[in-house]
Every structure is written in C-alpha cells, then in structure tokens.
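Rotation project, supervised by the postdoc (A.L.). Task for the rotation student: set up a whole-complex structure prediction and record inputs and outputs verbatim in this book. Inputs entered:
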Amino acid sequence: MTDPFPRRAIARELSRVVNAPVGDVLAEIGDASTASARRIGITGPPGGGKSTLISALAAHRLEKNRDRTVAVLAIDPTSPLSGGSILGDRIRMDAIADLPRLFIRSVPSRGARNGLCDNVVDLMTTLERHRFEEILLETVGIGQAEIDVRELVDTVVLVVPPDAGDSVQAMKAGIIEIADIFVVTKSENPAARQMAAEIRGIVGARKSASPPAVVMTAANGSGIAELSDAIDAHHHARDNGDTAERRRHYHLKALIGREIDAVLSGNGEMARGDLRSSYNRLLQHLRRY
Amino acid sequence: MSLARKRILIAKPGLDGHDVGAKVIALALRDAGADVIYTGLRRTPDYIVRIAVEEDVDMLGLSILSGSHKELVEDVIAKLREADAGDIKVFVGGTIPVEDHEALLKAGVCGVFTSEMKIDSVIGAIDRELAEG
Ligand SMILES: Nc1nc2c(ncn2[C@@H]2O[C@H](COP(=O)(O)OP(=O)(O)O)[C@@H](O)[C@H]2O)c(=O)[nH]1
Ligand SMILES: [Mg+2]
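Outputs recorded:
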C-alpha cells in the first residue's frame, strides 16, 4: 500500500505536539500558514453512537470524493484517578481502518474538563499542515462544558440516542445553541422518531433557521448520505468570512491558557497575597517568557 | 509513575475468540497511568501495524491464545520494520509454552507474559521496559 501522506511522520509529529510545552509547540507549528481544513465536530453522550457514526460518515465522504483526505481525532476521557485512559473509539471504526486516504488518532482528554483535550487545536493545526481536507473531531459528553467545541469546528453535529432523556433536558437548557445538525442514532429503536420529533419541536421554537434533525441507523447506513449532505449544506450556507480569525483567536487563547497553567502549577508563590499583586506577578512572569 | 503518557496498543491477532486476558491487561495498564488502545478480536498483522503506526504507540502487546504465536509475532515485527516503526517495542501474552519463549525473544519481543503470571509483575516488567527507553 502506498500512502498518500507520510503516515509515520505525521503520527510522530502529533505525539511531539501533544506532549510539548508551548515554546516547543510554537517551534513545531509556529509558522503554520492559514491552510485550513473543513472541521466537523461530533459530540453527544457516551455510548450515543458517535464513533460508529464517524466510521460510516468518513467512509461515505471518502467514497464520494476520492481525492479527499480525512483525519479523525477521537477524544476519550482520562481517568481522574490514575491519569490513564482506555481509548476505545477505534474499535467502532474497524470497517474504515485500512482506507488509504484516512488517518485516525485517539487522544486522551488529560486534564481538560470541556470534553476536549488541552491541545486539540495544536493537533488540528498539525493535521492541517499536512493538508488534510477534513477533520472529524469526536468529543465526549453533553452539557454546557462542551460549548468550547463550537469555537473549534465549522459544523457541530450533536448525536442523540433515542433513549437519552437527559439530552433532551440539556437541549432545553440551551445546548441546542451549539448544534448545527442533530442526529438521532439507533433509529431501529421505535423511540427514535419520537425523539427526532421532540428535537424538532424544541429547536423550531428556539431558532429562526431550524437545524436539521437526521435519523440514522448505523447497521444499514440509512441516514448517512442525508447527514453528509446536511454537513455540506451547512458549510455552504454559513458565513465563513471570519473563520480564520476566530480560529486564530481560539488558538492564541489556548496557548496562553496552557502557559498560565504551567506557571501557576509550577510556582506556589504566584497565587499568594492579594489578587492585584498575584495578577501583576503572573503577567510579569509571562512577559519574561 | 513512568507509565504516565505512555501509549500502549493491546492487539489480538489470529483466530482465537477470547479477549478476557487482553482486557485485564488493558485495564491494569490504564490504572497504572498509561493511555491504552485496544483493537478487538481477530486482527490481521497489517491492521495491527497500521494502528501502531498511526497511534504512535510506545509499545505493542500481542495477546495470542491460538498457538500460532511464532508466525504471528514474526509477521508483525517484520511489518513494523517495513513501516519504519521497528523501534516500537513488542511483547506477547497468552498461552505460550515455555519452550517457545526463547525463540520469541530472539524474534525481537521484549517480554513474554503467560496467563499464570501475576498482573502486577506483568505491569512492573512493562514499566521497566519502557523506562529503559
Ligand atoms: N442498534 C444500534 N446500535 C448502535 C448504533 N450505532 C451505535 N450503536 C452501538 O452503540 C454502542 C456505542 O456506540 P459508540 O459508537 O461507541 O458510541 P460513542 O460512545 O458515542 O462513540 C455500541 O455498542 C454500538 O455498536 C445503531 O445505529 N443501532
Ligand atoms: Mg466513541
């Protein structure tokens, strides 16, 4: 098999970037041009069918456009007790694991509490440097904390399994704001249609341009073409004018945030005393860097 | 703990249909701080090597109960080298007769762990192997 991209080299670069302090990250990707991939975020509760959906979606999109290259970043939660993780998303991506124009990487969430991982944006930039045209990002969970994913991708697909009563509650509480497309998975379950109707009800009342709610079954691939088309339609309809700038802002904030974390956790003195002097000390420290 | 930030792939090549042992190891490695990727049952050497490369693992554990450990191990190690990933350490676990251990070590594995071994000593051995770099 001849690879359309340097698989081994990309894999190693991702490892360097994920473990590196900010200074080294900048050395590695600091000259990143504005090369930008279509970024599609898939989020939703654990067990909802995100990985299974990504497998079918990637297969469909690679089949439809045979020159396309697609990368998958699948984030799984790190155990807060041991700091280790089981990265299990790949098991569901069996059917696509040998497609030549595809690259899949599993990522532990580590300390991040927002369903992402601290340097997911650096990983995406690394993949973009290698000219992947699409990145599918799987993130964990459903709730206010995941709203960050909105800043990171072009299109947010929210996966809702038919039995997820708490997802409906979360949507009522406002998570619908972040979703561009809803997918009710496991639609052979009779509750799926009702769930889709319920979502359309909630969403229709809240948003002027109602995002689509697709019903799909992983087993027979039904709904995948519809979802793929909805992603394209969303991409073409949205205003992509400020994407590069918003992404750059997010990236800068992420880098500074990590720098601040490093300083605060490495120096107990930093947060002593009154708020103003801690703040000034921290600023000074960051400047020196 | 030296398993923190280590990436380890646990894979099951060959035709046997049990992965209890593989899952026990995977969970124990997670509890020791490692990031563990598990492949599921009955994977081909090509498939396993591609995942090892993409995931840039520090170590690859092959769990084999089928008796065809020699062929499978040699095949995987050869394909890792072909993929310029010969530096990824490989260990074998499962039902491996003692008389085969020597040959497997010669073929390039860094450890052979049989089902009789205590899980703690397996994790300890993996830990030491990765600490050596
Ligand atoms: N019946 C049925 N099961 C599904 C479907 N999609 C996913 N699953 C199953 O749901 C479970 C969780 O799927 P997974 O993709 O790992 O969910 P994730 O945690 O959201 O990534 C697995 O056992 C899947 O086989 C579907 O369309 N129908
Ligand atoms: Mg998953």
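Student's summary: Residues 47 and 94 of chain B are 20 Å apart (CA to CA).
Supervisor addendum: The pocket of guanosine-5'-diphosphate (ligand 1) is lined by residues A 44, 46-52, 89, 92, 185-186, 188, 217-219 (CB under 6 Å).
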